[in-house]
């Protein structure tokens, strides 16, 4: 009889251990079904002093169902106000850093607010602010396709490259400006970058426009230098590129060698010295 009680006790303990292990496994499995998403906003340069934009919400959808939209973060995380002209020379704005369920990620949506503005110069080079009208269709949500499968426990970083010059349209000669956002989405893991400094001998050259061309001389993208003459061009597809700089008062510059860009790597173009005319 004592042996039977001992065996029963052992089986009971073993059963409890297996049950606890199952619970732990289920918890671990649940934790593994999440992925981390980061969205970084950068800006291609434009001919404006400021481009002030308000983002009221950022959502994602794991399906094609219009009812499947879920907001990143909490309501108190919005609105997000940003001057796009500040997102140059390696500056970026981290819009989203969230953990979401793994699996399909079809698209994201930026919901823009009202009160967007543009700062430009008048004929006397004096800055003034004008409204940047945002059509209701853009306010209801600018959709960006991702079509990505998120693996558990991985971090996915996407660069949202907002092309200001392409996004702002002047309505004839009315003096009114409309915002029609043009945003390119690039997966950072599938792209590389080019960095460098532009100088006049020992003096940094701010606001110099750096243009990037493919080896067939096709224009790819551009950026401008900061106050220290520094620049960083993100989101370049792996390959070889040419840099061109046309700055008033200087001899036009073309990089003497091709700059190789690899995924996940920042290629240093070094210090570029412009020659005065």
Task: Describe, in plain words, how this protein is organized in 3D.
This protein has 277 residues and is mainly beta. The protein folds into two domains: 34-190, Immunoglobulin-like, CATH 2.60.40; 192-273, Immunoglobulin-like. Helices cover 14% and strands 51% of the residues. β19 and β20 form a beta hairpin. It is globular, with a radius of gyration of 26 Å. The chain starts with a helix and ends with a strand.
Kindly list the characteristics that best describe this protein.
mainly beta, nine-stranded mixed beta sheet, 277 residues, Immunoglobulin-like, 3 helices, 14% helix
Q: Please, how many domains?
A: 2
Main β-sheet: number of strands, strand sense, barrel status? Answer: 9 strands, mixed
Distance between the termini: 106 Å
- How many beta strands in the DSSP annotation? 22
Please state roughly what percent of the residues sit in beta strands, choosing from under 5%, 5-15%, 15-25%, 25-35%, 35-45% or over 45%: over 45%
The CATH architecture of the largest domain: Sandwich
Low-confidence stretches: 7-30
Order of helices and strands: HEEEEEEEEHEEHEEEEEEEEEEEE
CATH class of the largest domain: Mainly Beta
> Level of helix content?
10-25%
Q: If you compute it from the alpha carbons, what radius of gyration comes out, rounded to the nearest whole angstrom?
A: 26 Å
What structural category arises from helix and sheet content? mainly beta
- By CATH, the topology of the largest domain is Immunoglobulin-like
Count of helical regions:
3
Mean pLDDT: 83
Q: What is the 3D form?
A: globular
């Amino acid at each position: 009889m004592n042996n039977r009680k001992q065996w029963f006790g052992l089986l009971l303990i073993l059963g409890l251990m297996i049950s606890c292990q199952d619970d732990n496994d289920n918890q671990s499995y649940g934790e593994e079904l999440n992925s981390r998403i980061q969205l970084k906003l950068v800006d291609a340069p434009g001919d404006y002093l400021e481009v002030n934009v308000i983002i009221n919400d950022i959502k994602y959808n794991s399906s094609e169902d219009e009812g499947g939209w879920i907001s990143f973060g909490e309501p108190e995380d919005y609105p997000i106000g940003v001057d796009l002209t500040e997102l140059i020379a390696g500056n970026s704005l981290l819009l989203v850093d969230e953990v979401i369920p793994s699996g399909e990620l079809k698209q994201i949506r930026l919901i823009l607010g009202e009160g967007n503005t543009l700062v430009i110069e008048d004929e006397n080079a004096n800055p003034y602010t004008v409204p940047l009208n945002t059509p209701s269709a853009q306010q209801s949500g600018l959709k960006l396709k991702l079509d990505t499968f998120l693996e558990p426990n991985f971090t996915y970083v996407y660069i949202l490259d907002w092309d200001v010059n392409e996004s702002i349209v002047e309505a004839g000669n009315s003096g009114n400006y409309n915002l029609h956002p043009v945003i390119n989405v690039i997966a950072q893991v599938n792209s590389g970058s080019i960095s460098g400094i532009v100088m006049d001998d020992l003096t940094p050259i701010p606001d110099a426009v750096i243009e990037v061309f493919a080896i067939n001389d096709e224009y790819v993208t551009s950026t401008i230098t900061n106050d220290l003459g520094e620049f960083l061009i993100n989101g370049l597809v792996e390959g070889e590129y040419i840099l061109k700089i046309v700055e008033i008062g200087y001899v036009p510059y073309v990089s003497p060698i091709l700059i190789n860009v690899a995924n996940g790597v920042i290629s240093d173009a070094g210090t570029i010295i412009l020659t005065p005319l």
